[in-house]
Automatic annotation (TrEMBL):
PROSITE patterns reported in the protein's UniProt record: GIDA_1
InterPro entries, A to Z: FAD/NAD-bd_sf, MnmG, MnmG-rel, MnmG-rel_CS, MnmG_N
GO biological process entries: tRNA methylation; tRNA wobble uridine modification
Cofactor needs: FAD
Keyword Secreted: no
GO molecular function, one term: flavin adenine dinucleotide binding
Keywords recorded for this protein, A-Z: FAD, Flavoprotein, NAD, tRNA processing
Name under which the protein is recorded: tRNA uridine 5-carboxymethylaminomethyl modification enzyme MnmG
Domain of life (superkingdom): Bacteria
Assembly, per entry: Homodimer. Heterotetramer of two MnmE and two MnmG subunits.
Length: 593
């Protein structure tokens, strides 16, 4: 019987990060995946980053994760979203090459001598006295281990729906994992069904791009990783729109949609509806935006973002070809809905370990989330804590006050998730502090505690020192009246970053953006840190009298509704559920009881 310190089940975005951090911490690691050439393959749209999601990628870079490097290396089209707003919500987004991303992912993993990758399927989790002792593989081998991280994506009991056709699969033309699903149920894991969907893929040469609006990539907008000096835009994306003919085709065939036939048990993601959902729920709209996203530089496949569907293939042909520029399009793969098993809420700890089974960790869509970035962040946390537990080191809990990783995990372990969860900047009460540009400051202490001695740690240390030097230069050492006057302008929301950047060309863009943002939000940050300190110091205080809280005039109506419906014992149980100012008021009341 082979023996490993940790076994990672699944080679998606969560699996890559779990394997990466476990390998960096020098464990003997086994990664089990159906196919090595599909490691990190984008099952849905070919992009990394975006609103809220890019913050996770920046945080992973500070922590020596793989996704930031992979996004930069495989990126072929870059844009900065929300650039017209304040820097707190700026979000880098990269279109990735769907062929080179898995190649680069495998290359990174193959670089770890202590990591073994096998093409197989985990069919059973082996337990003894409520703790993991091993896993069983489909090809018959038993693996001895005390730590398992399950990163199953949509493969766990996956079922694909295209019209009335139902196909067992974890992804189009790929098998699912039913035995592992049954194994989890047999050891007391409670599962629910969730649903997501994906859009058709078309042949690039069959599309008339001249009828569409071109979206070129942007230059000099930064990179995901501190290791990357510069990224290159190699393709354009395009915008087109649906029309009344498109909508009529969908309305006339709704009865054939798996989504509306009642065949699908699971609930889909609220913020990524299918096209038939959009046509029904937003019937007043004459059109919806469709993004045409090439899946690679030398790739003939194009992803039709915004056209997710579970309608029959012939209906998909009809409505896609009603869209300007797609009249003669050739299908490579139809859109489909997919239903899969996920954990019922509140079964895992903040470390992502199961509450009742020692050594069993979960990451990604199995925890009820959607998105590559959310999966990657969870994979990192699960792999990290499983590894720290093996090494008999203290596990690390990411709190929502200091990171979006903490916001994500706090939400998924506390909330009753009945639909796939997606991270947004609006999920955080502290979003003016949780920015892309200060990830290296916020997670500095955790990175030092994990203690991965790599090039990134050295570069971030250098960036920290440069930022301190810049602040010192402006606050104390500059006799330049113009500079001091300009710096005061930073407090004006309309003052552009480019002005500040041009004023101090001797400093790096990363250091300048950090100082620019810190000054812009200085008052807010100081106020929030004060509230956070009070909240954290009183987190263990028991909530003894709910009625008194519910009758108090200083508690908001929204907070009262949540308190009345939620089982809370301590103040800390309210983190992330209600506004921090309400928690502060609750503490005031509790101190008087």
């Amino acid at each position: 019987m082979s023996q490993y310190d940790i076994v990672i089940v699944g080679g998606g975005h969560a699996g890559i990060e779990a394997a990466t951090i476990s390998s960096l911490l020098n464990l003997k690691v086994l990664l089990v995946t159906f196919a090595k050439d599909k490691i990190g393959f984008p099952s849905c749209n070919p992009s990394i980053g975006g609103i809220g999601k890019s913050h996770l990628v920046y945080e992973l870079d500070v922590l020596s994760g793989s996704m930031p490097i992979l996004a930069d290396r495989s990126g072929i089209h870059f844009k900065l979203l929300n650039s017209s707003k304040g820097p707190a919500v700026w979000s880098l987004r990269a279109q990735i090459d769907s062929s080179t991303y898995p190649e680069n992912g495998l290359q990174i993993l193959n670089g770890f001598k202590n990591l073994t990758i096998v093409e197989d399927e985990v069919t059973d989790i082996l337990l003894q006295n409520e703790r993991v002792v091993g896993v069983k593989l489909e090809k018959g081998q038993n693996i001895q281990t005390n730590y398992v991280v399950i990163c199953s994506g949509t493969f766990l009991g996956g079922k694909i729906f295209i019209g009335k056709e139902e196909i067992k699969g974890g992804r189009y033309s790929e098998k699912n994992s039913e035995k592992l699903s049954n194994s989890l149920k047999s050891i007391g894991i409670k599962l629910i069904r969730l649903k997501t969907g994906t859009s058709p893929r078309l042949k690039k040469s069959s599309i008339d791009f001249s009828k569409m609006e071109e979206q070129k990539g942007e230059k000099d907008i930064g990179t995901f990783s501190v290791l990357t000096d510069k990224v290159e835009n190699r393709i354009s994306c395009y915008i087109t729109r649906t029309n009344e003919r498109t909508h009529k085709t969908i309305r006339d065939n709704l009865h054939l949609s798996a989504l509306y036939s009642g065949n699908i048990e699971g609930k889909g993601p609220r913020y990524c509806p299918s096209l038939e959902d959009k046509v029904v729920k937003f019937s007043e709209r004459n059109s919806h935006t469709i993004f045409i996203e090439p899946m690679g530089v030398d790739n003939e496949i194009v992803y039709v973002n915004g056209a997710s569907s579970s309608l029959p293939v012939d209906v998909q042909y009809e409505y896609i070809r009603s869209i300007k520029g797609l009249e003669n399009s050739i299908f490579i793969q139809p859109g489909y809905a997919i239903e899969y098993d996920a954990l019922k809420s509140k079964q895992i700890k903040p470390t992502l370990e199961h509450k009742n089974i020692k050594g069993l960790y979960f990451a990604g869509q199995i925890n009820g989330t959607s998105g590559y970035e959310e999966a990657a962040a969870q994979g990192y946390v699960a792999g990290l804590n499983a590894s720290l537990s093996f090494l008999k080191r203290e596990e690390i809990i990411f709190d929502r006050f200091n990171s979006y990783i903490g916001v994500l995990i706090d939400d998924i372990i506390k909330k009753d998730l009945t639909e796939p969860y997606r991270l947004f900047t609006s999920r955080s009460e502290n979003r003016l502090y949780l920015r892309q540009d200060n990830s290296f400051i916020r997670l500095k202490e955790i990175a030092e505690k994990i203690n991965i001695d790599d090039k990134r740690r050295k570069l971030y240390k250098k960036l920290f020192e440069e930022s301190e030097e810049l602040k010192k230069f402006i606050y104390k050492d500059s006799d330049n009246f113009i500079l001091k006057s300009e710096y005061e302008f930073l407090k004006d929301p309309s003052y552009p970053f480019e002005n500040f950047k041009n004023l101090l060309p001797q400093f790096s863009t990363k250091a300048l953006l950090f100082v620019y943002s810190e000054n812009k939000y200085k008052g807010y940050i100081e106020k929030y840190k004060r509230i956070t300190k009070i909240v954290l110091e009183n987190g263990e205080r028991f909530i003894k009298d709910k009625k008194r809280l519910l009758s108090s005039p200083i508690i908001s109506k929204e907070a009262k509704e949540i308190i009345s419906k939620t089982e809370v014992e301590k103040v800390k149980d309210l983190y992330g559920l209600i506004d921090p100012s309400d928690i502060e008021n609750i503490i005031v009341i509790l101190k008087k009881i």
